[in-house]
Amino acid sequence: MRTDWTVRDDVPAELRSSIKRLLVKYGYPPDRQPVAIKLVMEQMESKAPRCSEERAA
């Protein structure tokens, strides 16, 4: 089972936008934001299969 956000193209774009807003809100340096956004997205992608398995159980 795949989560919706890993299949649709518009959902990751919205997630990146939300992450960026949070980084700005909490004063994260603008020059380091692209790396942080990439890291968070990678973490979400790696955790998605495990979360969907837990939800199915």
Structure explained in plain terms:
This protein is mostly helical and 57 residues long. It is built from three helices and no strands. The chain has helices at residues 4-7, 10-25, 33-56. The protein has one domain. The protein is elongated, with a radius of gyration of 13 Å. Helix 2 crosses helix 3.
How many distinct beta strands? 0
Taken together, the total number of domains comes to 1
Mean pLDDT: 84
Instruction: Indicate the overall shape.
Output: elongated
* Number of helical regions: 3
What ranges have pLDDT less than 50 throughout 5 or more consecutive residues?
none
Spatial extent as radius of gyration:
13 Å
Notable features of this structure?
57 residues; elongated; 77% helix; mainly alpha; 3 helices
